[in-house]
Design a protein that fits this description.
By secondary structure, the protein is mainly β. Helices cover 5% and strands 61% of the residues. β6 (59-77) and β7 (84-104) form a beta hairpin. The longest helix has 9 residues, at 144-152. The protein is elongated.
Length: 166
């Protein structure tokens, strides 16, 4: 949602892409406690507010802030078919503050980049890894408000056909 091209409110979904694999003891799934390699994962749903402090075509600079909640855990394969299980799963909460820039290539499309910091407000005590981190983003942006305006504005609708003279 965009308010006067200065304030934006958003919701999203993020998923951590991790290469961290650790041996974990899995209980209550197999006949005996079993050690399996498990991969670290985290996903969360943030709600954000963004203040645009510079907006002069084609550039835009902003300060986004978001707060979110989700889960962190290790996942493992239960069997050869590829069924996955989770271990050490807990709810987490986090906040992100960053700066962002975008460049409109054309009316409907642009590119963007951001740099910020993520801090865990409620961490998973079962996982030793530290999720507090500098974060960056590189974006391809589609400006849906411009697409809708172009497709549905009165200026772009075909003129009604004239009534034939009788």
């Amino acid at each position: 949602l965009d308010f006067n091209k200065r304030i934006r409110i958003s919701v999203g979904y993020y998923n951590l892409v991790s290469d961290i694999v650790k041996p974990k003891i899995v209980r209550d799934v197999f006949p005996a406690d079993t050690s399996l390699n498990a991969r670290l994962d985290m996903h969360y749903f943030p709600v954000g507010i963004e203040y645009v402090f510079y907006n002069k075509y084609p550039w835009e600079l902003s300060v986004p802030f978001s707060i979110g909640a989700g889960k962190s855990y290790f996942w493992y394969y239960k069997n050869a078919v590829g069924e996955q299980g989770r271990i050490d799963e807990k709810t987490v909460a986090l906040a992100i503050i960053s700066t962002g820039a975008q460049y409109k290539i054309m009316k409907w499309f642009g590119v963007g980049a951001g740099l910020g910091y993520r801090v865990m407000l409620a961490d998973n005590s079962n996982i030793d890894e530290n999720f507090n981190s500098v974060i960056y983003s590189v974006n391809l942006r589609i400006f849906l408000d411009e697409v809708v305006k172009s497709l549905f504005s009165k200026d772009n609708r075909p003129a009604p056909e004239a009534e034939p003279d009788e």
